[in-house]
Amino acid sequence: MNEVFARRFHELSVKQSKITFAEDSMGGGYVPAGKWQGWATSAQSLLRAVFGDSGQHYINFTATYNDCKGYAYEILAMFDILNSAKEDFEGGYVFNVDLRVSGEVFGDFVGLARTALNEGHKDVAAVLACAALEDALKRYAAAKGLGVEEKAMADVINALKGAGLVAGAQKAMLDRMPTIRNYALHANWEKISEPDVGSVIGFVEQFLLTKFSA
Fold first, then answer.
1. CATH level 3 topology of 97-211
2. d(CA 73, CA 4)
3. Would you give the distance in Å from CA 136 to the centre of its chain?
4. CA-CA distance, 158 to 72, in Å (whole number)?
5. What was the pLDDT predicted at 213?
6. How far apart are CA 13 and CA 86, in angstroms?
7. Structure letter (DSSP) for residue 212
8. Is residue 17 within a helix (H) or strand (E), and if so which, with residue range?
9. H or E segment and range at residue 154
């Protein structure tokens, strides 16, 4: 996702450079209708994808865009906001995009797991929740520079602990998770209780909230 967004930032910068200004009868600058809206719409969409609805770049751009009549100072303001966003993105000064997008996907899995558990489908819920947990742990560790590819969940957890990336209650709760995961993925259903599954779901929800949110 980072590579895709970086490419799109570049494409919009090129498109931006081709937007030309005309002079009105009062000597002011403007961009004719239809010459900037396409660029602005794409820029707004990109900023929302990268920074989220609460991102300041997206909020500022949207406010300017909504009031824009095509005058030079308005267009230039949007140029500045997109340029600033591009610099912050390329400089690594924004939340990791892969984590945020992954968090949204994992959130869907956890939602399905909670629904399955509430409907009495404990085993289905266990598989969904444990799969989301394992992938979330690996993606978070990888985003923090830890080499966890192809490693077992227990090893990933130890790597996170060793790097000080989980602590307190999360650290203690994680110790039980590999056992539940192994029971779920090896179909040892009799060894998994509904409270076990509920604890995995609750942990993943909290983990996504604290580690995957912008």
1. Four Helix Bundle (Hemerythrin (Met), subunit A) (1.20.120)
2. 30
3. 12
4. 56
5. 59
6. 9
7. S
8. helix 2-17
9. helix 153-162
What is the DSSP annotation of 23-84?
E-TTS-EE--TTSSHHHHHHHHHHHHHHH-TT-HHHHHHHHHHHH--SBHHHHHHHHHHHHH
What integer is the mean pLDDT of 176-190? 90
155: tokens are 């090893």
Structure tokens at 160: 């996170």
Tell me how far apart the alpha carbons of residues 123 and 136 are, in angstroms, rounded to a whole number: 20
The string of pLDDT tens digits covering residues 74-101 is 999 999 999 999 998 888 766 555 555 5
Question: Cα–Cα distance between 84 and 91 in angstroms, integer?
Answer: 10
Query: Which sequence spans correspond to the domains of the chain?
Result: 2-90, 97-211
Query: Letter for the amino acid at 99?
Result: L
